[in-house]
Amino acid sequence: MSLVGDVKFSLNVVLSKQKDKVLFAEVGSDFADVLLSFLTLSLGTIVRVLKEHYGEDNKGARVNFGSLTSLYKGVANLDSIHFKTNCSKEMLLYPKSLFEDESPKLKLNINESFACKKRIFRSGTCICGAPKKMEIGAKYFEAAANGDCGVFTPTNTESFIITDGLLMFPHTTGFIQTIKKLGIDDMDLGETRNVTFGSSGMMDLLKGALLSSTPLSDVILKKERLITLPKQNLNNEFNCTTLQRTVYEFKKVDLTLIVQESTNRFLFAQAGKEMVDFLFGLLKITLGDVQCLLGSNSCLKRINNLYKSIEDPGSVRASTRRRIMEPKMTNPNGVLHVVTSSILEVQGQYVKGPKMYNIADDLTVTPFSTASTISILKGLKIPFSDIVELPVEIRLQEALSILKASLTSTSAITDGLMINSMLKKKRKRRWNEQ
Q1: pLDDT at 254
Q2: Tally of CB atoms within 10 A around 358
């Protein structure tokens, strides 16, 4: 990611006695604000900034964010003729943030905007021909000079404690009370260090927050970077009645699973524009929205901790807390109308219809055609006689399960819909009927 200048953050870090783990760190409001801004980043923005920073050609450094990386790449590769408007594709690749007034005041604005006299653009050049330009923290120094130190954090709180798991709270007590609150034994305490963080370190922390169980230790102690999460056992049971304040309306959509009958192997899916609009719309929701939708059942544990931190009145401004945790209601008009900080309204938003699309297990979407389907099956060396179609209705439960699986799994359809279990049950019923 191209940066204009660089920024520095100062952290006071307490290590374990073995010097192999960060127990906690004391940080200023400037660092805390940037950390909290992770919750305001859309899933599509995260994929983009990680790709720009780490690259996508170098397999040793490339970062895959579940199935969202391939979903984003599929949008980028899909020809513009398949989108409803000229702006639809751009809206997905460069989602607009509802925190655009606050973001430029951050010391490091990860969700950079490219300014122009006519409009705000996020890639390439503006219609006036002006090249994209990013200014790091330009308004931060102006705000600091006016005595406004906090962007998301309260102005009267200058110091915060952050754990290795990214749980954060204001540092308003003494040292002894702090280590007691963290449950740290004095035998565990090692040396303290003053550490300087730059923009690259903050990107490593964002990556670690998504992919590691010890992100602060990984970055500060320069441990080997974790690139992909180990596959998790996804529990896709959601209490949908608790989501009434966040999901106003859900209209079921149809999905057809293409399965190899002899092995019960899921190959790919086919669906209309409604399902594709839903999947594409996931790129626009933020990490804060994900927590709001999935609650404590999200598998991003470090992001869970960060989200829990904003429940503390001393950690964030009341207005910020309300916008992230108590989104406003708007008029529903979609397959999945999620009343979150990014307002995901799906129906009629992105791709043209009526038209069918192929959806891979990693959520890569391509236009359906008979020729392309034949090509896929021939490539897999599967005879047509061994193919069966399995229709599935995607309701709220399934939609949330796909969202959850997409965060960590590169097989979001299989894991989100628990297809292997579904097919085993189907085969068992067929045997019992014989």
Answers
A1: 92
A2: 20
| pLDDT tens sequence across 233-248 | 555 555 444 444 445 4
Q: What is the DSSP string of 115-173?
A: E-SS-EESSSB-TT-PBP---SSHHHHHHHHTT---SSS-TT--EEEEETT--EEE--S
In contact, 1 and 49? CB cutoff 8 Å: yes
Least Cα distance to 105 among 161, 47, 145 occurs for 145
Burial of 392 (0-12, 13-18, 19+ CB in 10 A): middle
CA dihedral sign of residues 363, 366, 369, 374: negative
Q: At what angle do helices 301-309 and 199-211 cross, to 10 degrees?
A: 110
311 exposed, middle or buried (CB, 10 Å; 0-12, 13-18, 19+)? exposed
Instruction: Report the alpha-carbon distance of residue 111 to residue 115 in Å, rounded.
Output: 13
Let me know: does 332 contact 318? Beta carbons within 8 Å: no
CA 383 to centroid of chain Cα atoms: 38
Burial of 196 (0-12, 13-18, 19+ CB in 10 A): exposed
| Helix/strand/coil percent split, the chain, to 5 | 40, 20, 40
Contact 170, 155 (CB under 8 A): no
Run of H or E residues at 295? none
Under the phi-then-psi rule, with left for phi > 0, alpha for psi from -120 to 50, and beta for the rest, what region is 288?
alpha
**The residue to which tokens 């897999």 are assigned:** 380
Q: Do residues 43 and 29 make contact, with C-beta atoms less than 8 angstroms apart? A: no
What pLDDT digit, counting tens, does each position of 248-274 carry? 456 788 999 999 988 888 999 999 999
Is 390 strand, coil or helix?
A: strand
Query: What φ, ψ does residue 174 adopt, rounded to 5°?
Result: -75, 175
- Beta bridge partner(s), residue 119: none
Question: pTM of the entire structure?
Answer: 0.84
356 and 365 Cβ atoms separated by less than 8 Å: no
pLDDT at residue 43 greater than cutoff 60: yes
**CA max distance for the chain:** 79
- How far is residue 38's CA from residue 299's CA, in Å, rounded to a whole number? 16
Give the strand order in the sheet containing 247-250.
247-250, 336-338, 344-345
